[in-house]
Amino acid sequence: LCRGGLAERLCRLQNRERSAISFWRHQCISDDKIPSDKSGVLIVKILELFEECTIQVAICQQLEESPATLSAEHAVVSAREPILKVLFARETAAHLKSRPQDVIHIYPPWQKLLLKKAAVPVIMNTYFSQKVLPSGHSETRASTHGLRKMLIRKNIISLALTFRLDDDELPQQPSAHQVACGRQMPDKCDSKQHPSAVNDSLLEMVESQGAVGWREAQIRVVIQRVYCLPAREGCRSHLQGNRPLSEALRKDGMFCRLCLLVQDAYGMFSEVQLQSLNSADDTEQYSRRWEGKFCCLAGMKILQRTTRGRALGLFSLIDSLWPPVVPVRVPGQSQDSEMMTTDLPPPSFCYILTAQSGEIHVEVDEEEEISNLYQLPAVRGLKDILQIHACNERCSFWARVLYLKPQTKLNVPVNQREICLFVTDCTLQGMAPLTPKVVAVSVAASCVLSTEVTEALSAASRLIFFKDALWGNGRIICVERTVLLLQKPLLYSAAGADLSELTGPVRLDELDSTTQANSICALRGTVVGVNESTAFSWPTCDRCGNGKLELCPRDRRLMYCNQCSEVVTSPVMKMQLEVFLRCPSRSQSTVKVKVMTQTELLRMLLGTECPGLFVLINMLLSLQSYEVQSVLGKEVGLLNCYVHSATSHPNCVALEEIVLL
């Protein structure tokens, strides 16, 4: 707010008003009695209650003052001014919890409004009000605070009356677009648990119900997306269990919260945060059952009103769903076909909703057909995604994971480390020039992965569906609200998306002058040197892969694994060595390849015309004299390598030979 401006002054005035009201109420509760000063106090008895435009309207009779404590039984009706219409704000009504026949004391500064065409005066500014209970009934006073909120009749003011629309301007029959966008939720939403009418506008619901909670109202929306958001440790009990690859793939110390991105008939979006989960294993099931279906929400409260600048990730997903595929309604206008449009600016704010404790009601009609307002993810090939010029754009694709590289920075906590997946598809494996054959996809720590996906990635090369990944600055990133699935989505197949699988062997880009760090490539060359100082080998457990074996206490000739608590009779040998190659594709560079492998992999390239580097290392380490000359000049390739660094000063490329999934 501008310093000294009207908005800032109004904000300060409202804060002082709220503080004064809170202090006055606290003082009344602490004294546990009616304030002694009765000058200017208006005493009324409630006859009828109803709600109109978020204001509680009470039809009351004015009472004469009575000495000592005034009760409803001894109240005297004034014949001079018998009927009043008293307006209570939402907060005041929630504090009073009034019912018919209750006696209310209204303290100054209340105001009386006389309308020209109405005989009943209106009482406003009733913030300093107190309910009066019969004397000697302190237990009744205590129990009153625990009463459930009484169901109050609500007078719905028609928009046609508000905007003074004539009857001939209103459509007599709904148009085709109205049926598509504003279909009534099935009778299931009009259950006895929620007797009020079903609304179809998020904004109208917020304005009428406020931020404290929608106890007696429900809203009909369309579920556009289902996903999980991470929740830090402390939101619920600690996760149990320790699965393989937990340090690389699972987000230890994090939970996830099931969330829905919903849209109303006016195009307004809202994110609904539901119950917390220990894992994202059920996300795929909820997504398959709920996305595109109508849903009725009740028992919600506003957690936050966020804007585009505060939640770029959320609004990048909303932008991918904008504009709507069918015309939406326009607030404040008659809803004929001419007033339903798709030419609207994208939303600039979004309400984050959550369920009140013990009052969550999410009713999804899974048997209902897919809504016309639902938008499928725009599935593209990786080649098309690489040609997108926009930034922070959501994209969905189907790709095969070839290699997984966890982040190993020691200064980054395990639950905040990224994972790099190297993927490809049929659009990249062609012969198109200047098109990479493999693309790196970064999986941020905020992207929640299901156990099924993590176990599949650790086992073998799998086809993964990446839904709503983020493309920007030449990178594909899986962030919050990105979902990774193993099953082929039937809806997306029906939409004509290209989900064809690879038919031949996978090819990598060969090492050349354009190869960058943190990529994978294929390498061929001639051995020109070996770094003997780095050559070593060590035994590992054949069951769990533990590389820190000890001598068995009972038999010093055997190895013992502390993790398995078993004797290791057949240890698997691992080795490491650095080899220098001369590569025709980078003749001016020093190419250094680090090899870390197991002896069981040494047979991979046996019998080939150009032996693999594993074979040459085996030859070198098996020689007792370690004659380097025995492997110099040998040709190797093609090797699959991960590029650690590629520098021009000095002109050097450091690689590590890898095994694809």
CATH topology of the largest domain: OB fold (Dihydrolipoamide Acetyltransferase, E2P)
Instruction: Report the strand count.
Output: 30
Helix share bin: 10-25%
Quaternary structure state of the chains depicted: single chain
The overall pLDDT, averaged over residues, is: 76
Structurally, the number of domains stands at: 4
- Enumerate the spans where pLDDT stays under 50 for 5 or more consecutive residues: 67-74, 138-149, 169-188, 190-195, 233-253, 598-611
Classify the secondary structure makeup into a structural class: alpha+beta
**If helices are DSSP runs of H or I spanning 4 or more residues, what is the number of helices?**
12
The span between the termini is 56 Å
Determine the CATH superfamily of the largest domain: Nucleic acid-binding proteins
Q: Which word captures the global form?
A: elongated
